[in-house]
Design a protein that fits this description.
- By secondary structure, the chain is an alpha+beta fold.
- The chain has a single domain, classed as Thiol Ester Dehydrase, Chain A (Roll), CATH 3.10.129.
- It contains 2 helices and 5 strands, in the order βαββββα.
- A hairpin with a 5-residue loop joins strand 4 and strand 5.
- It is globular and about 45 Å long.
Length: about 140
């Protein structure tokens, strides 16, 4: 599975009233990074919309001056949907500071769902296999 990376330097304007990264700013970057993965596979960014964020779980606070790397990959494809997994690490530390899944759907000019014909993504590692399985479970339970 091909992964895509976006790096961000945390600046003063990115902080909340606690002096840590504002969740709204991270949400923007989270969706953007996932969109890059989905749009790169579909090759028509104008035909992709975000359907649902399936959680954006922070595990640790991010401080001013930290450099975070967001990494995304499409881990599952349906007929008109794609599920991307995103994780963020800080300053090249091995533990993730945030992770979650997002579902995108492909649409026509009127906003109606259309088939995307994106082939299923092959898991190359055990971690990717588990992510694809988890994405499948998320899709089954979404409401």
């Amino acid at each position: 599975m091909k992964s895509y990376q976006v790096n961000r330097l945390i600046k003063s304007e990115d902080l909340n009233h606690h002096g840590t990264l504002f969740a709204g700013r991270m949400a923007e970057w989270f969706v953007e990074c996932a969109f890059i993965a989905a749009a790169s596979l579909y090759r028509k960014p104008e035909g992709i919309v975000c359907l649902k964020i399936h959680g954006m779980h922070f595990t640790k606070p991010v401080q001013k001056g930290d450099i975070i790397k967001l990494e995304s990959k499409v881990v599952r494809t349906g007929n008109s949907s794609m599920q991307a997994y995103v994780k963020a690490v800080k300053n090249e530390e091995p533990d993730s500071y945030l992770e979650g899944f997002i579902t995108f759907i492909t649409v026509d000019e009127q906003g109606n769902k259309v088939l995307h014909n994106v082939p299923a993504q092959k898991a190359e590692t055990e971690e990717e296999r588990k992510l694809a399985e988890l994405a499948g479970q998320i899709v089954k339970t979404r409401s």
